Each structure stands twice: as structure tokens, then as C-alpha cells.
Amino acid sequence: MDGFRRIPLSLRVPLLTAGLMVLLGVVASQQVLSTLGKVQDARIRELAQLQIEALSVALGPHVLRDDIWEIYDTLERAAGETKGRRMIFTVVADENGRVMAATDPVRAPLDSPISALTEGAQTAQTLSVTGDAVQVRLLAPLRYQGRTVGQIMTELDVADLISERLRAGQLLLLGNAVATGVLSILGYLAMRRMLMPIARLVRRMRETADAPEPIPESDLPRGDTEMTRLVKTYNAMTDAVEAKAETERRLAERERFVSLGRLSSSLAHEINNPLGGLLNAADTIRQYSDRPDVVRQSADILTRGLNHLRDVAQATLDQNRLDRSSAPLTFEDFEDLRLLIGPEVSRQEQKLRWQIGASGEALSTFASAPIRQILLNLLLNASAAAGAKGEVSLLVSEKPGVLCLIVEDSGDGLSDAARTRLLSDAPVPPGGGVGLRLVHDLVKELNGCIRSERADHITIVDVTVPLQQSGMPPPC
């Protein structure tokens, strides 16, 4: 069965059709032979009944008178008239079953019991020819004028009927075999032709698995059949696959340009934000050039800010991935952030709350560049959301195995587009800034998580990242 299932459908169905036709031919032949046998049995019963009735009419008076010689003479005449025909041997017995006369007295002596000769005998109503027998034995009551006066046992020759049955059976089997064979071949070829589109479709799908190609119109099945609709559906599918591939190519091309735009925007965003603080430090040096302590402090800020810009540029060159080999995060990085956003906070007369509650050991497990970029983007967005005379807060704390960075503002809260950029991986349309999406990507690379909520008119963005040496699983 498993081997048959491995045969292709285009070959399995024709073979099954041919097999069913052969089975149908065999069943039909058996039915015809059975019907022929029944017809012959009916014919034999009819002949036997006529034979018995004729003998009963001729022998009845002689049996009543117990005239043995007349009975014998009648049997002789009947046997002579049927010479070369059906009756071979006939015995007549009285009511007590004693033989009165027979066509062969040697086989049936006078006054012997007829029961010795009736083994295997049949009645006229159930007479039938079975097997290869060429003779049948019939036992029937001898009736005369409505009464039973004795018994008749006769043997009939049915060799011609058996021969006729065998000849008819042979001719029937030969004819059925030829017809079944021809019909099986025609059925096989017809089914193969009908299933050819499926075989062609399977072959085309196997040969063009990577880039399916439509089947030419010249190879489509004629008419509006299921096969035609199947092939047309396949052609429509190939067109859809080709259109989808073209769409994906165009989307990839568009995404490439969008990525380039995001890359340029990110680079400009990350360079432009610190420039205000750096220019402010340069102005401080120019104004207080006679104060060495102020000059040193401003020079340190310039150095760290320029190093940060170098890290950003290097990260951009490394396919927008941050340089993990940059300097570790320290308290000075937070002071730099405070100085960098200072001009923007002062310009809008905002209140800035700043609290760094983590240990230096915990901070040193992180590279400074990603944390600085995360906080710088969040603080700039918070300052823009808080507006004039608003409030902005940065709270950094250390919990078991994690570092918590919380940025708060008194603005109206994040818009749906901003929440999508910050909290989800869903694609966003180009434009509208890249700061929040960059924060999302950086936190994800650090195995951290971001939560945003609004309470008491305050928008809270909570960034939690695991300490590098803690071995803790991601907090989200």
C-alpha cells in the first residue's frame, strides 16, 4: 500500500481505472456464466419433465395391469426413438419400489429394489448440471389419471449442453478479456491525458520552485474544466508572487533610502545636540581666559564632548552600532549631560531636578556612549515636551542586578506616534525624528526594557538595563 501511494497521482489514477475495469469484466463474466448455467438447467428440467410425462402416459396402463412385457416393450421403443439423444437408461418400478422393467435388465434385475439405483438422483423440480458431469440421474413418480402408480428413474445425456456451456464460457471469457483489455488501455490513456495538466503543473512547480513561472496559454487544457481553472489559478498565483517580489524589491529600495535618511538624521541629531554645550564651553574659555580653573573645567568638557562626537561618528560608520570598546560610564558623563542640556533648560526657564544615586562600580559596567545617547535623547524630548517654565527630572538609581534611568517631564505626554517609536518594534514612517526610535534600539541592544506612564500630570519614562556582570536575565 505504501509503495502504491508513492506512485505519482498522474500514474496512480489511470492504473486504478484500468484495475477497476478488469474487475468489472471479471464480475460481468461471472454473472453471464451464472445466468447461462441457470438457463441450461431450466432447459434440462423442461426436457426431463416432458420426457417423464410422455413415459407416464405410455406406461401408466401397463403398470396398473402389471404387464411387464408391455412395459419393457414401451421402454425399448422409447429408447429406440431417443437413440443418439438424451435418454441412456430407464427403470420402472411399482408402488413398492420393486423393479418391473428396465432398458438394461443387467443393471436393474426384475423385482430388485430401485433404491439401489437412485443414489445421486435428482427430482424434476431441482434438476441441475453441476461440475463437469455429462450425465444426470432423474427420479420421478409415475402418475396416471391423477394417481401415483409407480416410479421412474432415468439417466439423461447432457454432454452436448456441457460442451455448449464450456464453449460459450471460453468465448465469453475471451471476448471479455479482449474488451476489458482494450477498455483498460483506453481508460488508462484517457486518464493519463486528463491528468496531464496536473503532471505538467507539478513538473513546472518543481523546476521553478525559486521563481515560479506561468504555464503558457498553448498548454492550457481546453474548455472550462476543473483542470483549466486549476492551471489558471496557478498562473494567477505566479503573477501574484512576481508582483509581491517586485513590491518587496521596491520596498527594500525605499527602506534603503529611508535608512540612509535615518542614518544622516541620526548623525546630525547626535552631533548637533552636544554642539550647543561645546560652543558654550568655548565661550566660557574665551570670557574667562584669565581664570585657569574655569579654563581647565571647560577644556575637560570640550575633550569629553569631542570624544563623544568621535564615538558617534565611529558608531555611524559601524552600521549605526555603538562602539562597545568606548570608555566606561562615570559620574563625569552625567555632569556632561547636565551641561549639554543646560542651555536649552535655561532658554525655556525650566526647573531641572538631577539625582544620581548609583555607585561608580555599577556605572563602570556600561560603556558611556550608549547610556549618554539614551539619556541625551530622552532629556531633549522631555525638555521640548515640558515647554516654557516646565519641569524636567533625571533620576538614576541602582537596584539588585539592574540600573534604573528615569526621565520625567511636566508636558502633555507622549503622542501615539512617539509611543510607537519608543515602545514598540512596529515599523514607523520616515520623518518625525529618530531620537525615540534610537533610544528603543539602544535599550534593546542592552537587553533592557522601557516603560512609560503618566501620573499626576507627569510623564515618566523608565529605562531599566541589567548590570553587565550581574548575570541577571533581561528585566522585561
UniProtKB/TrEMBL annotation:
Keywords: Kinase, Membrane, Phosphoprotein, Transferase, Transmembrane, Transmembrane helix, Two-component regulatory system. The gene is zraS_2. Its EC number is 2.7.13.3. InterPro entries: HAMP_dom, HATPase_C_sf, HATPase_dom, His_kinase_dom, HisK_dim/P_dom, HisK_dim/P_sf, TCS_sensor_his_kinase. The chain crosses the membrane at residues 171-191. It comes from the Bacteria. It is found in: Membrane. This is histidine kinase. The lineage of its organism: Bacteria, Pseudomonadati, Pseudomonadota, Alphaproteobacteria, Rhodobacterales. It catalyses: ATP + protein L-histidine = ADP + protein N-phospho-L-histidine. Pfam families: HATPase_c, HisKA. Its main location: membrane. Residues 266-469 form the Histidine kinase domain. The keyword Phosphoprotein applies. Residues 192-246 form the HAMP domain. The keyword Translocase does not apply. One of its GO terms (cellular component) is membrane. One of its GO terms (molecular function) is phosphorelay sensor kinase activity.
